[in-house]
Amino acid sequence: MSTSSDDLRAIALAEFTVSGYAATSLHRIAELAGLSKSSVLYHFASKEVLLEAAVAPAIHRMAEILDELASGPFTPERRSAFLTEFVDFILQYRREVNLFINQGPSLVDVPVIDRANELVITLAEYFQATTGSVEDKMRFGIALGGAAYTLCSQDTFGYDIPITETRAALITILSELLAPIATAPIPTAPLSAV
């Protein structure tokens, strides 16, 4: 059985998440894939290129979500749609989110991680501009960051909650946490998605 580029991306992402990007070598990824290092290099010129390939789909999807968020007023209906999209995003890209949260600050000179960090800043700036009180701003930070961290913790600490139950619970909890917030008009400058 041959190992494809998709397989290598999945193996690398899992190892980057568990062992850390800095501590993971191409030799280790090759070993986990049952290949030689030169076979991995045939598909990906470097560890950084492999990281880019592994996390770029998540960055692209997050940019799409931010574009949709910025496309109109943040009504209660759009808030509900955003929360569902956000939960689906963190469920689909759980390992990537884990990598961004836990290793992003230490990988600031890695271009793909810089783009991910810029998206997180863009999201935070959006809610800073569209919410009124400090309490409301903090609600968004705690709700969205807490949801992402909770999923990272499930993987790290081995919680075994079925995905459908996790999804429903996160959407309900986020909706309840953010329900009291009255949002301000959308900012006049568009979000600067990466």
TrEMBL record:
InterPro entries: Homeodomain-like_sf, HTH-type_TetR-like_transc_reg, HTH_TetR. It holds the Pfam family TetR_N. Transmembrane segments: none annotated. The keyword DNA-binding applies. GO terms for molecular function: DNA-binding transcription factor activity; transcription cis-regulatory region binding. Residues 2-62 form the HTH tetR-type domain. It comes from the Bacteria. The keyword Kinase does not apply. Residues 25-44 bind DNA. Gene3D superfamilies: Tetracycline Repressor, domain 2 (1.10.357.10). Coiled coil: none annotated. Keywords: DNA-binding, Transcription, Transcription regulation. This is TetR/AcrR family transcriptional regulator. It comes from Lacisediminihabitans changchengi. The lineage of its organism: Bacteria, Bacillati, Actinomycetota, Actinomycetes, Micrococcales.
